[in-house]
Amino acid sequence: MKVFVKTYGCTFNQRDSKTIKGVLQSEDFTIVDSEREADVIVVNSCGVKGVTQDKIISYINVQNKKVYVGGCLTKMIDMTKYSNVAGVFDPNTISQVGHQIKNKIPKNFSNKKENKLSLSMVKVKEEKTIIPISEGCLGDCTFCSVKLARGRLRSYRVGDIVRAMQGKTIYLTSQDCGCYGFDIGTNLAELLREVVDVEGDFIIRVGMMSPEHVLVQLPELIEAFKHSKIMKFLHLPLQSGSNKVLRDMRRKYTVAEYKYIVKEFRKAIPEIHIATDIIVGYPTESEEDFIETKKLMEEIQFEVVNLSKFTARPRTYAAKLKQLPGNEIKRRSEHISVLIREQTKSRVPMMIEE
Question: Is pTM, for the whole model, over 0.85?
């Protein structure tokens, strides 16, 4: 049977799709490069943003073949209501997707996380290797629906991560790399000290880290980032420059703590690129809160900014709040977009793929 795998979303999802392909190949499915060639389509979905959800549903609705849907979105909305969806599975059951397709099983969910590093992965010749170091997180953000899909933190053992390392550029990825190891008695700084000792000519890019987890290991992390094998790139999501909005979002750090992290990294590693995430239009964000975000962006001068207009995600606390008017969210987004262009026009951009 021929299968085409369509991927949406983050670096972690890209790795999951390679694993899906590897699992299917090991069960004698043939992976093809287009929908036209396929007997069945597998969609690895993303549920972070409403606009992505709309794209996924539109894509599914125009297919004339049976579609199996996996990924985060399957834990947020009922994908079985779409006529050509033959089955759904979640991020914890990708090892069983071949069995599910062969036996026409409509739904396959589990609360038990799989060790993704132990599963087959499609063999592709490329410079970049994506390695999940953990799955899930320790956060309780009011706006985030990924926690519903990926659950609580499960970190992979250092030995499993080291054995997965290959290629010239290695992306260590997770929902939150900052809390890596907190469940198994270690942390990210210790992991980085281990992986840079692996023999070979490679560079490591560390994925997104929540500020509160960076704070508790800040000196050790800065020292680890000084190593020549660690890319001088720090993805540290701010979300808002207002302490009130951060509290409302249940973010577990203050603006002052965030600024301290940036200051210490830049003092120790002047060439580092700081990437951040900004959400405008959170339901409790006032005009004064928005101005605080603008001022903080002007002060910090980020190298990379990933800007999102707030959209309520299914089953989240923030979805229950009174929403700001769409035209106001758009206005704030446009203002921040202008600021980003002004700040980055003279810099060499660095891609962000979280």
Answer: yes
